[in-house]
Write a structure and sequence with these properties.
ELMO3 protein, 679 residues, three-stranded antiparallel β-sheet, SH3-binding, ELMO_dom, SH3 domain binding, PH-domain like
Length: 679
Amino acid sequence: WSLPNAERYALQFADGPQTYITESNRSEIKNGSILRLTASPDQEAERLYSGIQSNNVDVKTDSLKKLASLSQDVTFAQEFINRNGLKQIFSIVEEGKDTGEMMAHTLKAFMELMEHDFVSWETLSATFIKKIVSYVNMNAVDASIQQLSLSVLENMVPTSRLLFELVKKEVTLDRLLTHLQVTNAQLQLKAMALLIALLLAASDAERRDMMDYLREKNIRQFIHKNIIHSSEPLGDEMAHYLYVLQSVSLNLCEHRMRTSMDPYSQEQRELLQSLRQAAFESESEVPASTFSTERRRSLCAKEFRKLGFMNNSNPAEDFRRAPPGLLALDNMVYFSRHTPNAYSRFVLENSSREDKHECPFARSSIQLTLILCEILHVGEPCSETAQAFYPMFFGQDHFFEELFCICIQLVNKTWKEMRATQEDFDKVLQVVREQITRTLALKPTSLDLFKTRVNVLNYSEILKLRQTERLHQEETLAVPVLELRERLKPELLELIRQQRLLHLCGGTLFRKISTRRRQDKLWYCRLSPNHKVLHYGDVEEGVPSPPIESLPEKIPVADMKMLLVGKECPHTKEKSSGKQNKDVLELAFSVVYDTEEYCLNFVAPTRYEFCLWTDGLNVLLGKEMTSERKQTDLDVLLSMELKLRLLDLENISIPDTPPPVPKPPSNLNFCYDFSHSEQ
């Protein structure tokens, strides 16, 4: 256009994130993209750099506001940082004359500039950090400034041990708990984010101390009452933080779980003896101390055998296997001390039974502890995206031990219902595992509710469920039924394809996960109703379902080349230099489009969404649906359709081969001859 001083101008996307067009991203311009002619990034950076130093408050505020919005663009951010712009931001914060709108824009700009990873967090000055900390610790500060300050500290904590120690020392747990108890949901969320960041960055000993302190302050009851059962629905991010808090709490058991019993430890031997004494010494008329050593030893061995130990002469041997290690002993002692009546009843009831039908308390406890550790993922690292926490976990102190107390009584109950002998031990524990997992899947809100439901799901109910599943399998394996299945498949697969495309038309909210797991950036993607274009764009938290017109970016389905999943995706390869995250790998997929082979990268919020989206995109590409969800949906639909078709054959066994066609009858002369009547 022959503009004078052309280098002073640049093009910028007019819609969505207003990114500058550079050589590296010019290929992202699509037909129909609206561009704006504007000052070049270096000119804009220069102007704003002077603007934020202005003595005029209005000019300074406007410059900071513009800076906060432009800093999202990497080209501008680089130009601004090259001019030593961050130093200017530091000085505004360090002076801290203003705590209103100006400071909020300054902190927002700082966050956006740091997000590009041009500058290390470790370069921050002590004065700057203390100022940010003071905004968190002061009461009379604007909520938006406190939120941004908490976010700054949350991003700072994982970057270095030094910063972690500084933040932990300056921002007390008491202060964070105060922020958690406010009515402002966003402030509450940011306080929880910082608390979780501190817990994850702490060493094992520090984490244990912090969790003990939080337990003293009744954080569990507060979360149960005011967050889980609040009138507002629980957001995805808060659900994730509660999952992490639950995971961190349960992982405090890991040390005991992985430690074998030391037969020479006085403390551990006393715990073991307390189990025997609680069960038998109260009923013994003569105190054991009056017997000779030999007699006492044989009496103890007999009592340990009654308690169900495999090695009754040296019961410590039973705790050598780790996991569950000493955690099993802790659970048994907790059960004997906190529910002494149930403990005595369990032991005495089984020690007085005839040998072959007694339920071994010790052996069952050790195996049950291992099962609970597996079900609750004790000792496994936290997932970066999971949100599956148990509401009842926050409704109970000593959750793991209390759950054990309910489940060990369930073992005894199921043992009696199955009329089990020692040979059936593994079968009984398998049934108990099924009872626990099926009940946990119902997400009971309290342990009492869990207890009620797990006891209702007795052995006969489990048998019925298994039988129904088996019958359903058997009846669908008859040859004629298999033929009918094959005939119904194409029609039902088409139904699944339509459902997947409808789901894509409805759209889904995705999160952008950066290297520091800052999860507050959201974007939405949906398919146009005519299935021709994928629309997507950034959105704010709390927007239920943005209209298609508000999503600025588009990819025509005709330009889509292929679908990549898991390790093949470019955004998982980028992260592979650090610790590769299993969950992100399981939920990641990318669409390759255009002749230049660009990628639109997704991380699905759940496995369910991952399956629906990958299936839907495969349908658009004209390929087979490959997810595990497609198979389960097809099985459900086939089973329903078959049941409807076979309703008339209820209680009639279907033969494997068709019945033979009967021979024609001997007297076939019953046909009326019309030809005679016509004559």
